[in-house]
């Protein structure tokens, strides 16, 4: 909800050349700033890194997965790099909020 609220407030379009499809309008995925996929990837990976005991290779794979999610959004032309970076930051702060309120 945080990402959707910021997207509706900022109303920044992505770098794509084509107009959004009907499905994009139905799912309210019209605006690009901040990147929702990146925020969720950052929040999930931070949760797993903080609350599960994982071997080092799994920790590296988890961080690499979150990075690849963000990179893929830029590569397919749905987001600018700043959208993805801000999505990562918002995802981290969402995790901190959930940890503070819900998991304390």
Explain how this protein is built.
It holds the Pfam family PAP2. Keywords: Membrane, Transmembrane, Transmembrane helix. This is Phosphatidic acid phosphatase type 2/haloperoxidase domain-containing protein. Residues 1-99 form the Phosphatidic acid phosphatase type 2/haloperoxidase domain. The chain crosses the membrane at residues 48-72, 84-103. The protein is mainly α. 68% of the residues lie in helices and 0% in strands. The chain is built from 5 helices and no strands. It has helices at residues 2-10, 22-26, 36-51, 56-75, 81-101. Helix 4 crosses helix 5 (81-101). The longest helix is centred in the last third of the chain and has 21 residues, at 81-101. The radius of gyration is 15 Å and the shape is flat. The model has no long low-confidence stretch (mean pLDDT 80).
Short descriptors:
PAP2/HPO, mainly alpha, transmembrane helix, 104 residues
Q: What is the number of strand segments?
A: 0
The number of helices is 5
Compute the CA-based radius of gyration: 15 Å
Instruction: Tell me the β content.
Output: under 5%
The pLDDT mean sits at 80
InterPro entries: PAP2/HPO, PAP2/HPO_sf
Pfam family, one: PAP2
Keywords: Membrane, Transmembrane, Transmembrane helix
Protein name: Phosphatidic acid phosphatase type 2/haloperoxidase domain-containing protein
């Amino acid at each position: 909800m945080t990402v959707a609220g910021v997207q509706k407030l900022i109303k920044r379009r992505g770098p794509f050349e084509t107009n959004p499809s009907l499905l994009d309008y139905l799912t309210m995925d019209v605006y690009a700033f901040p990147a929702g996929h990146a925020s969720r990837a950052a929040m999930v990976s931070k949760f797993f890194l903080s609350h599960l005991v994982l071997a080092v290779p799994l920790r590296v794979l988890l961080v690499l997965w979150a990075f690849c999610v963000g990179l893929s959004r830029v590569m397919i032309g749905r987001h600018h790099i700043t959208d993805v970076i801000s999505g990562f930051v918002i995802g981290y702060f969402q995790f901190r909020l959930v940890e503070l309120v819900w998991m304390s």
